[in-house]
Specification:
The protein has five helices and no strands. The protein has 101 residues and is mainly α. The longest helix has 17 residues.
Length: 101
């Protein structure tokens, strides 16, 4: 018996849901195009969005925090960078120059 935890092609439900609800149509023009750096920026951004009006303690915050810790921000960053490169017609050989933007 194999356990496949993927959800709609994403690592898991949490990654799919955060990408859908927070990062769908997210413009990374003003963000790093380095996937690792962008993944850290996305994690901070999601944290700010989820906890903007709430205290970071209590049962609801605990559940929200547990949900966000399961998100694969690196996968979302890869997806966003690939979409950005596609939208800007960036080819493999142009990639290094474009990532400097």
């Amino acid at each position: 018996m194999t356990t496949d935890n993927k959800y709609n092609g994403w690592t898991n439900y949490e990654t799919w849901r955060v990408n859908l609800e927070i990062f769908d149509n997210f413009d990374i023009s003003d963000y790093s195009k380095d996937v690792f750096d962008l993944s850290e920026q996305l994690e901070s951004y999601a944290d700010e969005i989820v906890f903007c009006d709430y205290h970071r303690d209590g049962l609801i915050a605990d559940y929200a925090g547990a949900f966000l810790r399961e998100v694969n921000y690196y996968e979302i960053a890869e997806h966003l960078v690939e979409a950005w490169k596609y939208d800007h017609d960036i080819e493999e050989e142009e990639e290094d120059d474009a990532l400097q933007l």
